[in-house]
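Deliverable D2.4 — example input (structure tokens):
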């Protein structure tokens, strides 16, 4: 009766199974396996179900199971799709697994997924990679991901693209723009119990699953010439090469010492409570409203006769001469640290924490991002407010510690942002300094600032460099402060930030309140030091305004923007669309991309291609040496955190260092790419060892 009732829920006859779908029970399955074994490209997809009552359990390999594996095999002019149902109940799944083993399916799957000459085509293959690693320890290598393809091709156009459900790079949205039919109504169907009930999947579900694996081959075929036509194919391949590294980050994650984590968290929580107790003494009424921006701003305005519209740390920083407002800022900052540690604690499993990585973030510059927890940007001791120093708080990164028998390789791309700018602009002053023995590009700016601030004739580049390193010299504190400020000036000016932004950056990072004239002098010092780079920055903006690749759909996209579009293309060929806005130049106004956006895009895209090339080289080295048991645990825009067996530490570090050098040399030709560190210096058991 129950089974009959389940069938009656359909209210209409089942649709026919698509003729190109081949299931395990069909006689032609064995022949299709042989065809797949020899093919050089195939589409790949899976469907999963939850083992718990939580529907979201189907998204996590720890709480879900794979129900279907779909393999789309191109056989011109047709595409046949193996739709392998692994079953629902444990007994059924065991029997099907054994049958597939007898047919040789698992061996073929492992070989085809990892084979470098074979292209594995799919959409958002980070999902499939994570499940294959978790369930079978099968890596996927020669990836061709249509989501990455879309993100690279239509980079920066997300707000104006034709899309479904607000997702510009979903499979459904890409099909919409390419004119391909696809029905995603079955995406959220029950892949465990089945549409027919009692674990039985309907033909509609099987057809849907099969088409998902098939359509990615069509998408890839249509988009490939389009990416090549606008010159971003190589950047797309770089993204594909880096994809397995992001899968490793999501699967293996970062090692955490849970005892250290508990201790460090307690110390930060105690410091936070101590700061609250201090505030109670003079401004008790604000404490319940510390994280209610409007109420807090109103209380501050009434208490101190101000006119704040917001109580964010940046806004409060202008009034840090008022002790209570400085203390509120410190409390808010400390709360960020406490929340970060608690987030790690909530996400630790078996001594590891995995972040949620987005390989290309929404801006489209190629930079990745991470959340829950954000492993790419843990709070750094260098930005800790001075008021926290009496608490002797340990660095937050100290909680990330390798387990016995493992070692960490903490590798960064030294001054990557500045090296990219030097290579792109060929600024002679920057090139001279990078090619010098010390390679210091900041002390020259410090000298110019000292001159503009009339600090004295002895404040020259060489003296500042010596005093900065000599902690016993009476001028060390001021020299160190001047050089640190020059670093902020350099990286801010490289992105064309204004003097107000510079003031805010230095104020929030170091507590130094820079006058308007000093901030302007600092930027002037940078521009007069690196004149050729300053000229190149203007050229980036000019080129962006005069470039508009004819990507698919651009005719309908441009009218949706307010003032039109420009396009920034960087040294590696990667590009991104940017909106134009009315900009004031001298005495007139014209439509232009914003200078800071265009410059930030240029440097960031170069960096993204370099760091992702580095990740691909690391994966290749690790595959060649399985005895290292090495993996990529984390990365950010200029750093990689990698792990392996301790006994192979030097070999792994050497390979990682070589990977970084190779990656940087794909772009940087005329200056050194590092300071020639000893590979041993990359090794450590804790993140703070670097």
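Example output (designed residues):
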């Amino acid at each position: 009766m129950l089974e009959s009732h389940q069938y009656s829920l359909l209210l209409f006859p089942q649709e026919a199974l698509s003729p190109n779908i081949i299931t395990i029970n069909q006689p032609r399955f064995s022949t299709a396996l042989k065809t797949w074994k020899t093919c050089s490209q195939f589409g790949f997809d899976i469907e999963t179900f939850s083992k718990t009552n939580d529907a979201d359990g189907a998204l996590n390999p720890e709480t879900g199971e794979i129900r279907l594996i779909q393999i789309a095999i191109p056989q011109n002019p047709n595409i046949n799709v193996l739709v392998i149902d692994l079953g629902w109940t444990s007994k059924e799944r065991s029997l099907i697994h054994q049958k597939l083993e007898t047919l040789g399916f698992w061996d073929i799957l492992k070989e085809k997924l990892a084979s470098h000459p074979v292209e594995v085509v799919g959409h958002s293959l980070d999902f499939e990679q994570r499940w294959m690693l978790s369930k079978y320890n099968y890596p996927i290598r020669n990836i061709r991901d249509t989501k990455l393809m879309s993100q690279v091709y239509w980079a920066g156009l997300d707000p104006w693209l034709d899309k479904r459900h607000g997702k510009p790079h979903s499979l459904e949205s890409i099909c919409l723009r390419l004119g391909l039919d696809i029905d995603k109504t079955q995406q959220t169907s029950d892949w465990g119990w089945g549409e027919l009930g009692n674990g039985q999947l309907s033909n509609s579900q099987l057809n849907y699953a099969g088409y998902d694996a098939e359509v990615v081959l069509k998408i890839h075929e249509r988009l490939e010439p389009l990416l090549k036509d606008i010159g971003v194919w190589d950047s797309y391949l770089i993204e594909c090469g880096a994809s397995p590294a992001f899968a490793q980050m999501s699967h293996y994650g970062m090692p955490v010492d849970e005892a250290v984590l508990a201790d460090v968290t307690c110390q930060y929580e105690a410091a936070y409570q101590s700061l609250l107790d201090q505030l109670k003494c003079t401004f008790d009424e604000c404490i319940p409203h510390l994280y209610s921006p409007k109420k807090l701003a109103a209380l501050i305005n009434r208490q101190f006769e101000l006119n704040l519209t917001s109580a964010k740390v940046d806004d409060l920083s202008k009034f840090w001469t008022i002790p209570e407002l400085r203390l509120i800022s410190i409390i808010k900052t400390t709360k960020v640290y406490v929340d970060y540690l608690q987030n790690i604690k909530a996400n630790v499993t078996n001594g590891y924490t995995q972040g949620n990585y987005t390989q290309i973030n929404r801006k489209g510059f190629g930079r990745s991002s991470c959340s829950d927890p954000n492993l790419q940007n843990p709070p750094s001791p260098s930005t800790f407010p001075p008021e926290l120093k009496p608490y002797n708080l340990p660095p937050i990164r100290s909680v990330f510690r390798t387990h016995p028998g493992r070692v960490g390789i903490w590798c960064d791309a030294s001054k990557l942002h500045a090296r990219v700018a030097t290579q792109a602009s060929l600024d002679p002053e920057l090139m001279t300094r990078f090619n010098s023995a010390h390679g210091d590009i900041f002390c020259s700016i410090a000298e110019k600032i000292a001159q503009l601030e009339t600090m004295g004739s002895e404040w020259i580049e060489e003296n500042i460099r010596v005093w900065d390193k000599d902690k016993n010299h009476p001028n060390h504190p001021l020299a160190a402060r001047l050089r640190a400020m020059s670093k902020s000036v350099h990286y801010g000016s490289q992105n064309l930030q204004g003097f107000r932004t510079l003031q805010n950056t230095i104020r929030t990072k170091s507590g130094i309140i820079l006058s308007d004239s000093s901030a302007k002098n600092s930027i002037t010092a940078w521009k007069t030091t690196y004149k050729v780079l300053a000229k190149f920055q203007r050229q980036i903006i000019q080129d962006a305004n005069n470039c508009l690749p004819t990507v698919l759909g651009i005719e309908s996209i441009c009218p949706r923007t307010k003032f039109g579009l420009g396009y920034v293309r960087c040294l590696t060929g990667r590009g991104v669309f940017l909106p134009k806005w009315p900009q004031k130049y001298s005495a007139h106004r014209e439509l232009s991309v914003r200078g800071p956006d265009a410059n930030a895009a240029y440097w960031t895209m170069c960096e993204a291609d370099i760091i992702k090339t580095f990740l691909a080289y690391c994966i290749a080295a690790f595959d060649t040496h399985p005895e290292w048991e090495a993996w990529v645990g984390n990365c950010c825009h200029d750093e990689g955190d990698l792990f392996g067996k301790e006994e192979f530490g030097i070999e792994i570090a050497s390979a990682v260092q070589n990977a970084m050098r190779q990656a940087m040399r794909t772009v940087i030709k005329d200056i050194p790419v590092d300071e020639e560190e000893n590979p041993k210096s990359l090794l450590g058991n804790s993140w703070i060892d670097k």
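Residues 1-9 have pLDDT under 50 and may be disordered.
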